[in-house]
């Protein structure tokens, strides 16, 4: 659109539709000054972030990345959403915000939406924020009796310029220069509570002035104004933000390209004008079916035209939607290969499915191979970044590693990452196309990763990876490019990795695991505040007893089942009571609640179950009632637990209790042992400070060889996923993760409460690659149970079935299978005798798998290893072995002869549609296989049979040793004399000439035969009168009963097996024929 402007005196007249950009242009034409950010004007550069308004120093948490954003082409700060943030103190500017202000933030969310991610904020039970709630951006401000919000939907991975304005009467949210939402407000602005004095970029501020509710996002600007700003100011700021960029994402090229004719499988490749502009993952569809970049497409396509649909967004909100048409022949799809060795033959077979259903012609060609001559292996703590690297548990690999030779190389079993390194020479006479193939075994819950060293980039390129299987070997293969060839060698590495995958099969059942199926257990209870409050404050004593009993039943169940269910430790993660959250709470009432909780926990003490508690925000004035003399320590002080160290139950567990300071149990650690493993449990109360985090870090470093568990009140927020997976950090989550969990690789498990709901996080590569942590939130305090089910409708005077916040009657049992490195989680209420709390969540967030699940846990017993059977570098020579045509889906076969036993061979099968012609170009697909030739496939030579050349003379009626002097040897099996069989019709009592046949077979079925004449002579009269009138018996290979034929083993094959099958009829015929030879 053309914009025409005319200057008239001091006014600027614009003809045409006025947009935000035009408003900004008008301001520039008049030389107007933009609104000045007088409280904070945070300038981001490649070296960091500074305030240019009042020189407020920046407090940096974590390790934010400061650099140039390639799309904006300006400096930005990028935060990881885990522990990164930048804070600026505005605690001395409270009065400046009282009657109105504005906050500006230019950001891009780099991760996924979640329940809450703050961007630019100073909000803690008061204050304000620009924050994300799921897919909505909110300007939220605490005015009057609560928070007021103006919200608008946004997209992830897109740059936005956002401004929140409060003028004392209305909260306004501007997005990209335009008013997007507003909300009327009534009342005064309420400041954040506690010590929340900082304006946080990349998150929000908690009561200890530490970052919380962090966002994985990038930021260009963040500003705070002491006065509300107007629409024209907002438009001008947007114009300067860079977010209104005119850059557009364009499609540069595709493979296949428009108009191409595809005859075989190709990898889908899509290139854009500028990858830095891409927002999220583009989507691709081939003929209406989803495909992915890098995926092999072609096999399975019918002859004709096809369409590739490409959709992508850019980081400035632009979209592209393009369609690429190409043609193909009928391209068969590979259905697998087989190499069969037997009876001296090697039979190659390949199956290909033709999408047309027509016949497929398969050409078999010879491959050439190379296997490594040894190698070395060891253990590394992370992915190597150089060709030569340091490692532990070093050993040489001497196994041959030929395919199918039963020679294998097994790595160490380690909590770190095992590896094997090989150098493989290029195969002789191969083409430029090479494939690296690994075959071996790995646990189904671990993975093997195949790498080749890239000489151009000096990096390890991952070629392929796979999870293991239970009962068979797995195979990895990847293409070797020119960059992977160093002289005449390829440097290969196989790495074993624990993916820590949260996909372990589990069935939701109303039961615990069988104790025989796990080694020990930990019970976890949290946020018992409402059942304690109900035990104190309800009017009816009868009703109070019901609420109290639910807590007593929980700890009593743990005590009663500690032995049978192998419970080694019981954890309570805070908010023990309800009404000690602020200074104005009634102390007498709070003491009554503490007494109820203390009575319930005492059941565990008396049962000598090792246990620990910690204070939540409802137990310590939200972190302000601290120290040895606070109310919490009067009931759960260190002396209570130090006394338990002397009990038999604690001593059996080698258990001890250690407060963080003398007389102060606000934080503490416990030691205990279970099933030969030693544990340290670090407990941190609500509102963790830098000092407390440093103490916890020092404890974990004091016990680096113990398996560590961290208990804290407010670590993760609840998940909104049906299975409870995923969560953001809660109040103390960021500081505990950054200062306690990440620096200590012995931490395996974090348990928490605080916010009602469930979350399960399997956090991978924490601190170092391969170090994983399982994090569980299980807080049922707000879950509602009907008064009818509780028997309280009449007792409590509710009148009708009324939902009551009774969810804290549920606790969890974590059952640990140490060999598997897994944890079975069950949720149970002893009071309700009910498994799974899902049905009581009034938000209906979950599906039941959040409360009954099986998860990985990285105690020291969770180890990784793998076994290598073969490593082979393969290339096609193009030399044809043979061709065969078969029906679609049926095997094409050829024989490959002339092979040598114990040599490694490879072959390729290229299968084509048989339909050809001037207008038809056949499609094809390619498969390959590698094998080691065996005697079964290569030995076609019969044994050598040695038989005396002269006739065998036997006197009638005497025993005949038919095998005397007869031997057989085989060039593979050696001496096979014992395999010789004698076939023929010989009557030892009837003089005459007979023909017998010697038959011998080797293990591969190769057979040799030789005939010999047996002459039975007249019996000498003298010997006749002395001997028996009956024929004498003989051993195997001797003539025996008169008139019988020479017998042979039933295992004979070939024509002699047929002789046996024909039985007596054939022998009678043979006797007639052989009679002609009698003298």
Task: Briefly characterize the structure.
With about 1100 residues, this protein is mainly beta.
> What is the molecular shape?
globular
Which architecture of the largest domain would the CATH scheme give at its second level? 4-Layer Sandwich
Residue share in helix: 10-25%
CATH topology of the largest domain: Purple Acid Phosphatase, chain A, domain 2
Q: How many runs of DSSP E, i.e. beta strands?
A: 71
- Write down the overall mean pLDDT: 90
Q: Report how far the terminal alpha carbons are from each other.
A: 122 Å
CATH homologous superfamily assignment of the largest domain: Metallo-dependent phosphatases
Low-confidence stretches: 1-32, 1023-1079
Largest sheet: 9 strands, antiparallel
Proportion of β residues? 35-45%
- Secondary-structure-derived class: mainly beta
The overall number of domains is 6
How many H/I helices? 15
What's the Cα radius of gyration? 41 Å
CATH class of the largest domain: Alpha Beta
């Amino acid at each position: 659109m053309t914009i025409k402007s005319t200057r008239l005196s001091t006014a600027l007249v614009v003809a045409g539709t006025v947009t935000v950009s035009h408003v900004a242009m008008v301001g520039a034409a008049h030389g107007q000054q933009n609104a000045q950010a007088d409280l904070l004007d945070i300038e981001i550069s490649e070296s960091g972030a500074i305030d240019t308004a009042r020189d407020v120093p920046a407090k940096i948490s974590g390790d934010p990345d400061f650099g140039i954003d390639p799309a904006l082409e300006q400096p930005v700060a990028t935060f990881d959403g885990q522990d990164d943030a930048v804070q600026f103190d505005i605690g001395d500017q409270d009065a400046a915000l009282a009657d109105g202000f504005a906050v500006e933030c230019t950001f891009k969310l780099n991760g996924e939406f979640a329940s809450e991610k703050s961007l630019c904020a100073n909000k803690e039970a008061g204050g304000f924020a620009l924050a994300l709630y799921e897919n909505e951006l909110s300007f939220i401000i605490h005015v009057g009796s609560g928070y007021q919000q103006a919200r608008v939907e946004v997209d992830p991975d897109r740059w936005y310029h956002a401004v929140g304005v409060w003028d004392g009467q209305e909260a306004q949210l501007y997005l990209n220069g335009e008013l997007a939402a507003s909300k009327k407000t009534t009342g005064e602005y309420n400041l954040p509570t506690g010590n929340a004095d900082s304006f946080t970029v990349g998150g929000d501020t908690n009561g200890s002035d530490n970052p919380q509710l962090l966002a994985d996002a990038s930021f260009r600007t963040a500003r705070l104004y002491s006065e509300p700003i107007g629409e024209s100011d907002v438009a001008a700021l947007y114009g300067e933000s860079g977010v209104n960029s005119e850059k557009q994402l364009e499609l540069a090229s595709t493979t296949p390209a428009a108009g191409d004719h595809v005859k075989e499988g190709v990898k889908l490749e899509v290139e854009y004008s500028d990858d830095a502009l891409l927002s999220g993952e583009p989507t691709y569809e081939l003929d209406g079916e989803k495909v992915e970049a890098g995926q092999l497409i072609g096999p399975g396509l019918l002859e004709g035209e096809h369409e590739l649909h490409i959709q992508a967004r850019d980081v400035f909100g632009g979209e592209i939607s393009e369609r690429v048409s190409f043609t193909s022949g009928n391209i068969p799809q590979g259905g697998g290969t087989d190499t069969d060795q037997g009876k001296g033959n090697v039979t190659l077979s390949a199956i290909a499915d033709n999408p047309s259903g027509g016949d497929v012609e398969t050409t078999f060609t010879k491959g050439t191979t190379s296997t490594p001559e040894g190698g070395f292996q060891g253990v590394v703590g992370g992915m190597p970044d150089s060709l030569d690297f340091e490692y532990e548990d070093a050993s040489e690999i001497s196994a041959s590693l030929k395919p199918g030779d039963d020679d294998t190389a097994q790595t160490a079993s380690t909590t770190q990452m095992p590896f094997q390194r090989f150098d493989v020479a290029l195969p002789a006479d191969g083409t430029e196309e090479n494939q690296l193939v690994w075959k071996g075994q790995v646990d189904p819950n671990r993975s093997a990763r195949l790498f080749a060293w890239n000489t151009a980039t000096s990096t390890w390129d991952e070629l392929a990876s796979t999870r293991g299987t239970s009962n068979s070997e797995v195979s990895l293969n990847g293409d070797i490019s020119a960059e992977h060839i160093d002289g005449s060698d390829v440097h290969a590495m196989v790495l074993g990795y624990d993916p820590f995958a949260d996909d372990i099969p589990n069935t939701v059942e109303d039961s615990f695991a069988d104790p025989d199926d796990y080694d020990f257990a930990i019970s976890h209870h949290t946020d018992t505040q409402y059942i304690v409050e109900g035990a104190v404050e309800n009017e009816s004593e009868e009703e109070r007893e019901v609420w109290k009993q639910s807590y007593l039943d929980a700890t009593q169940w743990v005590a009663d089942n500690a032995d049978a269910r192998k419970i080694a430790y019981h954890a309570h993660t805070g908010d023990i009571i309800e009404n000690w959250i602020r200074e104005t709470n009634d102390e007498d009432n709070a003491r009554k609640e503490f007494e109820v909780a203390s009575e319930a926990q005492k059941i565990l003490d008396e049962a000598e179950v090792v246990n620990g508690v910690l204070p939540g925000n409802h137990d310590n004035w939200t972190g302000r009632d601290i120290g040895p003399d606070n109310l919490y320590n009067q009931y759960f002080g260190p002396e209570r637990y130090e006394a338990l160290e002397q009990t038999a139950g604690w001593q059996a567990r080698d258990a001890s209790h250690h407060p963080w300071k003398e007389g102060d149990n606000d934080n503490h650690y416990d030691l205990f042992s279970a099933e030969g493993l030693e544990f340290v449990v670090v407990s941190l109360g609500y509102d963790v400070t830098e000092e407390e985090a440093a103490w916890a870090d020092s404890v974990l470093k004091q016990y680096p060889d113990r398996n560590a568990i961290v208990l804290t009140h407010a670590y993760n927020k609840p998940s909104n996923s049906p299975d409870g997976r995923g969560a953001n950090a809660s109040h103390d989550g960021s500081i505990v993760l950054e200062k306690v969990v990440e620096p200590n690789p012995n931490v395996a498990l974090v348990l928490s409460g605080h916010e009602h709901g469930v979350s399960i996080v399997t956090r991978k590569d924490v601190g170092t690659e391969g170090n994983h942590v399982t994090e569980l939130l299980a807080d049922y305090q707000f879950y509602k149970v009907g008064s009818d089910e509780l028997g309280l409708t009449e007792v409590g005077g509710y009148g009708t079935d009324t939902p009551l916040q009774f969810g804290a009657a549920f606790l969890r049992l974590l059952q640990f299978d140490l060999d598997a490195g897994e944890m079975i989680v069950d949720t149970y209420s002893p009071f309700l005798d009910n498994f799974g709390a899902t049905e009581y969540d009034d938000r209906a967030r979950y599906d039941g798998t959040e409360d009954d699940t099986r998860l990985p846990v990285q105690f020291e017993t969770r180890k990784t290893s793998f076994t290598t059977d073969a490593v082979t570098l393969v290339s096609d020579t193009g030399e044809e072995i043979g061709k065969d045509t078969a029906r679609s889906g049926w095997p094409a076969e050829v024989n490959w002869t002339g092979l040598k036993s114990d040599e490694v061979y490879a072959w390729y099968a290229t299968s084509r549609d048989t339909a050809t012609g001037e207008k038809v170009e056949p499609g094809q697909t390619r498969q390959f296989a590698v094998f080691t030739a065996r005697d079964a496939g290569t030995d076609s030579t019969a044994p050598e049979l040695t038989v005396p050349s002269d006739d065998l003379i036997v006197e009638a009626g005497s025993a005949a040793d038919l095998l005397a002097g007869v031997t057989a040897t085989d060039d593979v099996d050696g001496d096979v004399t014992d395999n010789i069989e004698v076939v023929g019709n010989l009557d030892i009592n009837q003089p005459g000439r007979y023909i017998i046949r010697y038959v011998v077979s080797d293990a591969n079925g190769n057979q040799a035969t030789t005939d010999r004449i047996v002459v039975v002579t007249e019996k000498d009269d003298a010997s006749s009168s002395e001997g028996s009138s009956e024929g004498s018996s003989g051993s195997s290979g001797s003539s025996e009963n008169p008139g019988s034929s020479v017998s042979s083993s039933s295992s004979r094959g070939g024509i002699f097996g047929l002789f046996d099958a024909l039985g007596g009829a054939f022998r009678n015929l043979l006797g007639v024929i052989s009679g002609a030879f009698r003298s």
